[in-house]
Amino acid sequence: MKKGIALALATMMVTSLAACGNTQDAVTSESTQPAGTETKTEQAKTDTEVPTVTMLTFTDWYKSGWEALSDYIDQNADDLGFRLKIDIIAGGGEGEELVRAKFATGDLPDLLQTYGPKWLDHNAGVLDQIVPLENVDMSEYSQDQLEEGHYIYNGQLYAVPMDSTSLVGIFYNKDVFAEAGIEKAPTTWDEFLDCCEKLKAIGVTPLYYSGADTWTLQCITHFGFNEDVVESGLSYTEFWNEMNTNKRHYSEATNFKDAIIMSKEMVDKGYVNSSFLSDTYDMAQTALAEGTAGMYCNGTWVYDEIASKYPESADKIGSFILPLYEKNYTCSSMPGSVVMTSACKDQELGEKVLNFLASSTAQQIYATAQPGIYLNQKVSCELPEAYQTLYDEMLKGNSMEVWQNGNVYGYGDYHIHVQDYLAGGMDIDQVISLLDSDTADNAKAANDPNWN
């Protein structure tokens, strides 16, 4: 994404953010609320007349929006002409591997919510098992928003967006900050360290790490990569064109490396929960909501989780961009993509379901239950403060797409390497070297001449 694209995208979306509704309590749906990383399905209601379409999604994507929408579908199945049965699998790297395995064995649902056709092509090599969508109406969306490799790929529509644009930042408990005498969110690195000291002084974990869910350990390091793009003088797209053609390497991303080092310094300074290697993403939400932790770095989806599980704490949660540099950027990530797999026997019915999921009717149901920044231009909702603060930065142009979205070739198990580094089992140079070597191996396996 070129510099300024995020601002343009945000400007196009701002008209859809007029106040319209507040977060509603989640309602029971045909799918059960996931627990941990287990796959959960609820037996579909017996109905021989209304066909059922199956869908797979990750546990961290199944939140109050999906609950409300799947409940609506269940209640209106006769009129809609279909039911939707959702299976939920683990998120992060574990879930990605399971998706690859399902493609390899042919054990596929009708629909799949994933990272989009570009990811399925370059990181899973299964684009041929995804059905191009010839009859899905996307007129309620801006073409610029869809041409990201997440939905349109090689000029062909493959997916519809589901969920909101996510922004990465530091989420904090405002009551705990007040108790520690912190009057405002930090805007410099020295102020951030001062916050950590004040939180530690009152017996609160300053910065929570959830190392058992290794994907969460990457979040802080994203901000360093943003700075490398800025210092290069290139746009995001230009920077990644060089990375993806062997002209630029992770070993040259010095700010990225420093951010990884900084994440370990937080551990060494005693600012992180001592049991972070065994603590989970779910435990992080509890700690932030209950005020046993002051801050947690993650995406806006973590606020959705807290608002759903701890509604009494939702208003206590604020956010800010990690202030590592003179100018800082939130990291943006486009909504998840729902695709139809070649396993769908009734593709006309599959497109019917996708047409409904893409519609402003379905998107509004989802957004009312789970407020956020939605791509459908007819959707409106009231943003909670934790979203609004980061969204305001996006409107100012202070956002950049998360670095992994620019990557064409897989870069290995970075999240595991970060965990090993924080635990002392790997040094920083090994982490960076593995990113470059794994990228090279994958590029060579794809017969990319740039790596000959």
Describe the protein.
There is one protein chain. By secondary structure, this protein is α/β, with parallel strands linked by helices. Helices cover 41% and strands 13% of the residues. It contains 18 helices and 13 strands. Strands 7, 8, 9, 10, 11 and 13 form a six-stranded mixed beta sheet that branches. A five-stranded mixed beta sheet has the order 2-1-3-12-6. Helix 2 (64-75) packs across helix 15 (360-369), helix 9 (219-232) runs antiparallel to helix 11 and helix 12 packs across helix 13 (301-309). The radius of gyration is 21 Å and the shape is globular. The model is unreliable at 1-47 (pLDDT under 50).
